[in-house]
Every structure is written in C-alpha cells, then in structure tokens.
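Before the break, one more example. Copy the sequence into your notebook; we will annotate it together after we see the structure.
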Amino acid sequence: MKKIAFVLCILLVGVSLGWASGMKKKKLQPYEYGSVSINSFSQQAGMPPVLFDHWSHRQYATCRLCHVDIGFGMTAGSTKIRAVDNMKGYYCGTCHNGKQSAVFKKKVFESCAKEYNRDEYKRCTICHVLERSSAREDDFERFAEKMPKDRLGNGINWEKAEAQGLVAPVDQLEGVSAVKQKLKVQPDFSLKAKVDGMPDIIFSHKKHTVWNGCEVCHPDIFVGIKKGATKYSMVEIFEGKYCGVCHDKVAFPQSDCTRCHSKQP
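Here is what the structure looks like once it is written out:
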C-alpha cells in the first residue's frame, strides 16, 4: 500500500508540474538549486546580472532575517535593488559593507562603489557574473561534502545540519532587527492527505520557525493562523503558491513526498 501511495504521489507531482508550467521543468544540478538571477538594473548599467546562491548565505543567516528584517521580496525580481541602495547600507549592503560582519563572522567585501578601477572590477564579478564558473561549483561541493546528505534539491539536509550545529544561522541583527518577545512554539499537527493511500502530512511549526519565524509565512503566504483556515490544493502548491513559495525553489522540492507525508499508521 505504501509503495502504491508513493507511486501515486510521483505521478501527481509530474502531472501537476506539467499542468502548472505547460512544459517539462529542467532538473537542476545540486549547485544550481536555489540560485536566483537578479537583473532589475544591472544590464542597464552595463553590468552582467547578479547570480545569487542561496546555499552560500543560508549557512549564515535565517530566511526571516533577509526576507523580513532586511526586506528582500520572496520572488525573484520583486525587490528593485539599486547599487546606490547597497552603498547606503540597504539590502546586500546591510552586510556587504567592507567591514566586520556580525552575520558572516568575518570582514566581507563591499557590495558596490561609485567608482572602480580594473583591479576593483574583480570584486564586482563576485556577484555580477555572465555564467557560473567551475570555481563556484567547487565551493559548493566542498561545503556540501561536510553536510548531512539529502536525496533531492541541493543534496543537503539543512534541517539536520542546523540540529547538529553544523550551521548556526543568525536571526537578529543589531540596528536592523526589532527585538521581539519569543512566542511559544506551536505543537506539530497532522493534515489530511487528499490522495487515498497517502500518509497524512505532519506539519512542524518548530522546524519552520527556526528559519522563518512567524512573519515569513503569516500573513503574506498563509492568511489564517488557525488550522484549516487557509484552503489550498496540491495544484496550487505546484504553481508556486503556499508551501510552493519556498519548496521547489530553495527548500527541498515537493517531489520528496515522504518528507511531508510522514504520519505513521
């Protein structure tokens, strides 16, 4: 029965992805998973687009710190980042300011400058790249080699990495984050599977709040805070809504059915 349910889930994933996109999605290499091209103003300024790798920042900062406190939108291109904003200490310039960083625990390169010479242009090409280099791939492989393995996505089990202390992402930044009172973590709860034979979903607030807090999900993604208040379907998730805002983009993909459908009979 479990095998049949798993096959049904895989079929549902394939059909839904095809329905949502109208075409077969290219399977990304692990080092490409979660990468975002940022090109709001780069080419207008005569620069290649920025290639942002989530994995290289995810080891240092929580999703909440970047997407709530610093203010990056949750979808590619939704935040119109300008070089002058970075130079004023906003967005990338919050951390990349040429000084000792509380997030990276080391001095980091300055993100942008009004003027630069040929040698300084090399600093620009750390972010503004025409294509991915083998050195960038090697950096990922060296990092991933030390991390707990996962089957899909970028091949790293970030949940286990955090639990084992291999990564300790910063969630508050002085002068940027508002100091908030810690809320009581809600207990795990089950959600009824909509495919016969599939195990029910076990949703863990604890696992999600480590990275997201409450603000990333509520109210922009899930309006209601009461179980069952927000109605959604698997098709909508595969279209990039609700759970699909993060899963299939940065968090592990939805094709890893048993990560969510995990309730034991």
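The first helix runs from residue 2 to 21. The chain has two domains: 2-28+181-259, 35-141. Try to locate both features in your own notes.
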